[in-house]
Here is the input.
Amino acid sequence: MTGPRWTYPPELAEALETFGLRPTDETPPALVRDALNDLYRFELRRMRERLRAGAVEKTRYVDDVIALRKKYWPLTMPLPVWERVCRGDA
Here is the structure.
């Protein structure tokens, strides 16, 4: 028995590839989104550690956080949107 097939739109697939994520038509959007969220949280924690260590100024930190949010733009879509955009077929 096979699960649903997913079609990741080119814009989303290209964005995911910049993070080293290459989902197939069998990869559920929930799994991909969770992996992307894990990467985002890792980078955010690393940035916070650099701030606490004094390696970056607070004013710069705010700009860096904003840039990171923009970099991880696919996370702005909730999971139901991912599933709709990727057109899961039963």
User: Anything to note?
Assistant: The CA atoms of residues 2 and 24 lie 14 Å apart. The two ends are 11 Å apart (CA to CA).
